[in-house]
Amino acid sequence: MEHGFLDKYADLKSPIHSVDPRVKLVVLLTAAAAASFLPETADGINILYYLMVAAAVLILLTRIPPLLYFKRALIILPPVIMLSLVYAFNDGFFNANTFIFYTLKALTCFAFLFTMVGTTRFEKLLKALKFFRAPALILSLLSFLYRYVFVIQDELERMLRAKELKLPEATRKFNLKATFLLIGMIFFRSFERSERIYRSMLARNYDPEIAFAPEKLKLKATDYLFAFSGILYLCLIFALQ
Amino acid sequence: MRTPAVEAKNLSCSYSDGTLALSGITFSIAPGERVFIIGPNGAGKSTLFLCLLGFLPYTGYASVAGFKVIKENLKNIRSKAGIVFQDPDDQIFMPSVYEDVFFGAGARYPEEKASKLVEEALQTTGLKGFENRLAHHLSFGEKKRVAIAGVLATRPEVIMLDEPTSNLDHRHRSFLIETLNKLESTLIIATHDMNLVVRLADRVIILFNGQIVADGKPEKILTDKKLLESVWLEPPCECELNMLFNRL
Q1: Is the CB of B140 inside 8 Å of chain A's CB atoms?
Q2: How far A82 CA lies from chain B's nearest CA (Å)?
């Protein structure tokens, strides 16, 4: 089975794809952080506008179908709307401007992160994090999560398919019961698999400190250009307000 | 006398529920030997591997690469011996092919040597060009080859393979046999795939109900139809036996 939830488009060719993961990490995380700390003032709204333009331009440059951004954004939208509503009702009545501001702020943040994750292979992102001295344990956890989430997904799909074949005419209630049972089974199987993986890790003398192959990362002129223009843009929009 | 690559004397192992999985296992495997442990499902083949690598408690004596299988020696044993488990998804735990194959070699050797060994392992297993592929995008046969490459890159003295040809199609199977044939390490292979046995075995050990019922040359054991049927194994067909005699 083919999966590619996170980095399905990471192998496309685009100006953003070709940027070094470390540079992307710094510039895009800075942009996301800048967006997330904006206050709801006239200046803040103006800066958010410029950041939204930058995010949109970046997404278009990536050549990833923009529709995918909106599809992925749907996942974060429910908690974002909840939080925005909390802010919007802060003064006791509904403030539509506040609601829109906080929702757009979150979506802008997400756009920068989407650009970063969508254009970089996950293991390259981990290597970039390793370069910035992220704790080895966290990196290992992320790496395992990425590796095995698809294995579990496959397992669940196979079990659901088997359930469909065994219970073609089951009532909705029975179907629901069987589905919950399968979810329980997935936990049980995952536990068993984790035991086997742990064994395999021990058999290979696993050490999180040396888990990732070293890569000779060398910055190109385009990386410097991206870093410089990105940081300059951020500085300018803040300085001009 | 040379130190045996793997040795077991009166080795017994029970599961936590009291089931006796292995009983009085005794054998000695010389360096470079290719030994096949054959037996039906549940005979104790995988359990034997787990005991030899120190994953399951046992009674008796066991040594791998000259190290007695005790807690203090496990790191050394696991550096000298590599195992390829039956399900490659349990074994490939890094996101990409290169990362996974590099992992073991990188832990043992300096970066430059490790990279060279990884290149060689990828070449041997026919995985050149797969370096950047993600593990979850590979077929079962490809994953199996990645698991083998990961072990080969560490240059182990002893390689244990648990049912290496299970779920493989003809092409991947043939390629695997070719790959194994090129290796100079001591090979211990648990299987019930007779075709694989006739092509590679120097020696065959039959395990049945946790006990060794036969240990000897493949031409002796594989032609004993009565013995094989008594331990629920399918005797090799005539063409497979011809293959064996031609090889010998």
Answers
A1: no
A2: 35
Q: Compute the average pLDDT of residues B67-90.
A: 91
Count of structural domains, chain B: 1
B104 close contact with A: CB closer than 8 A: yes
User: Could A200 and B91 be called an inter-chain contact, meaning their C-beta atoms sit closer than 8 Å?
Assistant: yes
Neighbouring CB atoms inside 10 A of A75's CB total 10
Spatial CB neighbours of B78, under 8 Å, sequence gap ≥ 6: A202, A203, A204, A205, B53, B54
CB contact under 8 A, A213 and B102: yes
The answer to whether residue B68 is domain-embedded is yes
Average pLDDT along chain B: 91
Question: How near does any CA of chain A get to the CA of B181, in Å?
Answer: 23
- To the nearest whole Å, the CA of A89 is away from the closest chain B CA by 44
For A203, the domain range is 135-210
Based on the fold, state whether residues A172 and A63 are members of the same structural domain.
no
In the prediction, which pLDDT does A151 show?
85
In whole numbers, what is the pLDDT of chain A averaged over residues?
A: 87
Q: What angle do CA B227, B229, B232 make, to 5 degrees?
A: 115
Tell me if ipTM is over 0.85.
no
pLDDT of amino acid B247: 80
The helix, strand and coil proportions of chain A, stated in percent and rounded to the nearest 5, come to: 75, 0, 25
Q: What is the pLDDT of residues B20-61, one digit of tens each?
A: 999 999 999 999 999 999 999 999 999 999 999 999 999 999
Are the beta carbons of A73 and A39 closer than 8 angstroms? no
Is A119 a domain residue?
yes
The string of pLDDT tens digits covering residues B129-164 is 999 898 888 888 899 999 999 999 999 999 999 999
Residue B145 lies in a domain: yes
**Residue A32 resides in a domain:** yes
Rounded Cα distance, B62 and A143, in Å: 35
- Output Rg (C-alpha) for chain B, integer angstroms: 18
Domain with residue B118: its CATH number is 3.40.50.300
Find the residue in A nearest to B85 (Cα): A200
In a domain, A40, yes or no: yes
Contact indicator for B98, B119 with CB cutoff of 8 Å: no
Structural domain harbouring B194: 6-247
What is the C-alpha to C-alpha distance for residues A155 and A188, in angstroms, rounded to an integer?
A: 12
pLDDT for A229: 94
Q: Does B132 touch chain A (CB under 8 A)?
A: yes
B215 is a domain residue: yes
Does residue B84 contact residue B151 with C-beta atoms inside 8 Å?
yes
Let me know whether A85 and A141 are in one domain: no
pLDDT of residue A5: 61
A226 and A108 co-located in one domain: yes
